[in-house]
Design brief:
InterPro entries: ATP-dep_AA_Ligase (IPR052032), ATP-grasp (IPR011761), ATP-grasp_PylC-type (IPR003806), ATP_grasp_subdomain_1 (IPR013815), NAD(P)-bd_dom_sf (IPR036291). The chain is an alpha/beta fold and 294 residues long. The chain is built from 8 helices and 17 strands. It folds into 3 domains: 121 residues, Rossmann fold, CATH 3.40.50.20; 100 residues, ATP-grasp fold, B domain (D-amino Acid Aminotransferase, Chain A, domain 1, 2-Layer Sandwich); 56 residues. 31% of the residues lie in helices and 23% in strands. Strand 13 and strand 14 form a beta hairpin.
């Protein structure tokens, strides 16, 4: 029986994915930097991705537990692990569900994401570095109010601010580790994508729509959003699972807000993605052996 290790087992994505894999009869192990309760599978502790021992201890866990497939779900782990795989510093004979290092780094930085998508003619809100603007007033004079200010590297909506006036903050204190973005006021979507590695067929896209209050989410048919999410993943060169944030602009056009190179928190509503991931693993393991990356 295939053994699967899911990191971030205490988070929404990790919990949902573990449940779905266990339902499929797989032998699943969770891992997290904090103790995790209430899972249907055993869990192990790992250091944070920024810890110098992260890769060493993750690799030791893979070896000691005879893991066949590793699925990271923690944003901070992705650049570390992708870089290790690219530099051949990950010698372990298991499949790793992660994209190429350059694509993962691009998705990890919201400014780089926006720049690459715009260059590929994928619709994004207008954006700038804070140093390119003198104030909130200048930004709103170009794009209307409110504007969005958020960290270039973050997850889960952390550090996101809607600004309408210079009274909201002291612009001089804002560095270029942030991105300024035009606000898209329309319906919000969380499409999930799976792109197989090595040009194989079988792309999967499921569009999820968030309620106005953000407390409910449901599957919907929105072909323009599905096409945009798939184009965004392809423009960045991402393979494997991709979680995309999309809103409609004032004209009703969908625009990409950000892209996450991993399984997202709403994977439970997209079982097709998990089936595609497992099918991709089986194909790659047969073609290239047990050690592969998506």
């Amino acid at each position: 029986m295939m053994r699967v290790l899911v990191t971030g087992s205490g988070g929404p994505a990790g919990r949902a994915l573990i449940a779905m894999l266990a339902e499929r009869g797989l032998d699943v192990l969770g891992a997290d930097m904090a103790p995790v309760m209430g899972l249907p599978v055993p869990t192990r502790r790992l250091p944070a991705a920024a810890d110098p021992l992260f890769l060493t201890e993750l690799g030791a866990l893979v070896e000691s537990e005879s893991i066949d497939l590793l699925v990271p779900t923690v944003s901070e782990e992705l650049p570390v692990l992708a870089s290790a795989v690219a530099r051949e510093l990950w010698p372990h004979a298991c499949g790793v569900v992660i994209g190429e290092a350059d694509a993962v780094r691009a998705a990890d930085d919201k400014l780089v994401t926006a720049q690459r998508l715009r260059a590929a003619d994928v619709s994004v809100p207008r954006f700038a570095r804070p140093s390119q603007l003198s104030s909130v007033v200048e930004a709103t004079s170009w794009w209307g109010a409110p504007i969005v200010l958020k960290p270039r590297v973050s997850r889960g909506g952390r550090g996101v601010h809607l600004l309408s006036s210079d009274r909201d903050l002291d612009w001089r204190m804002i560095g270029d580790d942030q991105i300024v973005q035009e606000f898209a006021p329309g319906i919000e979507y969380a499409p999930v994508v799976y792109r197989p590695r090595a040009g194989a067929s079988g792309d999967v896209t499921v569009v999820l729509e968030k309620s106005a209050a953000g407390d409910r989410i449901r599957r919907v048919e929105a072909p323009d959003v599905a096409a945009l999410a798939l184009r965004a993943a392809g423009a960045l060169g991402l393979t494997g699972p991709v979680d995309v944030d999309v809103r409609r602009d004032p004209a009703g056009r969908p625009v990409v807000l950000e892209v996450n190179a991993r399984v997202g928190a709403n994977v439970g509503l997209a079982p097709e993605l998990v089936d595609a991931m497992l099918a991709d693993h089986a194909r790659l393991a047969q073609e290239t052996g047990p050690a592969w990356v998506t």
